[in-house]
Each structure stands twice: as C-alpha cells, then as structure tokens.
From TrEMBL:
Stored InterPro entries: J_dom_sf, Tim16
Any one Gene Ontology cellular component term annotated for this protein: TIM23 mitochondrial import inner membrane translocase complex
Keywords: Membrane, Mitochondrion, Mitochondrion inner membrane, Protein transport, Translocation, Transport
GO terms of biological process kind: protein import into mitochondrial matrix
Record-stated family: Belongs to the TIM16/PAM16 family.
Cellular localisation: Mitochondrion inner membrane
Membrane topology field: Peripheral membrane protein
Chief place where the protein resides: mitochondrion
Domain of life: Eukaryota
Protein name, entry field: Mitochondrial import inner membrane translocase subunit Tim16
Length: 119
C-alpha cells in the first residue's frame, strides 16, 4: 500500500495536468476563433460605415462618374488610385477618398439604389 499510493498520486496528477493543458489550449483556440469572427464582422461593418459617410453625389464627383458602365467606373478608379499614390507624388488622403467613393457607388449598386450604366 505504501508503494502504490505514490504511483496512484503520480498518475492522477499526470492525468489531471494533461486534461488541464488540453482544456486551456481548447479555450485559447475558441477565444482566437471568436476574436477572428469579431474582427471580420467589424472590418466589413467599418467598410460599409465609411462608405455610407460619403454621399452618393460626392462619390460620383470624386470618380467623375454620372452615367457610365461599371467597367468605365473601374477604369477611372484605377487611374485615380494610381495617380494619387505617394510614390507618384500624390496624396494618401485623395487616394482614400477615391477608394471610399468606389465603395459607396458599389454599395448603392448592390442595394439596387443606383444604376450606373450608359443611357
């Protein structure tokens, strides 16, 4: 009995520590998954909020778009984005305005509130 008691305690503690380690690592993984989900939700929500802060008229003025095809709008966006790169002597502020304008028009197009086509 004296010899088996330490063995029982040793194995009991070993099993307990293994299960504790597994529980902690599972909890950390679940926490990381929840954090990633919150980050993804906040990221998509932040994009739509910043796009919604710009009016549709302002977005059209920034991209010089009134009635044009989506391809032409994309072409204008790419041109303005490239021209306003810091490496080209442009402004990060203007570059971000161009991005927000594109997001706003795309948001309106997805919601079916604006039709940016020839006509």
């Amino acid at each position: 009995m004296v010899k088996t008691l330490p063995k029982i305690l040793y194995h009991g503690v070993k099993i307990f520590l293994r299960s504790l380690k597994k529980s902690i690592s599972e909890e950390i993984e679940l926490s990381n998954q929840a954090a990633r989900m919150r980050y993804d939700q906040n990221k998509s929500h932040a994009i739509s909020e910043t796009a919604e802060q710009m009016t549709l008229n302002e977005a059209k003025l920034v991209l010089h778009v009134d009635r044009c095809s989506p391809e032409e709008m994309e072409e204008r966006f790419l041109h303005l984005f490239e021209v306003n790169k810091k490496e080209n002597g442009g402004s990060f502020y203007l570059q971000s305005k161009v991005v927000r304008a594109k997001e706003r028009i795309e948001l309106e197009m997805r919601n079916g509130l604006v039709n940016v086509t020839n006509g």
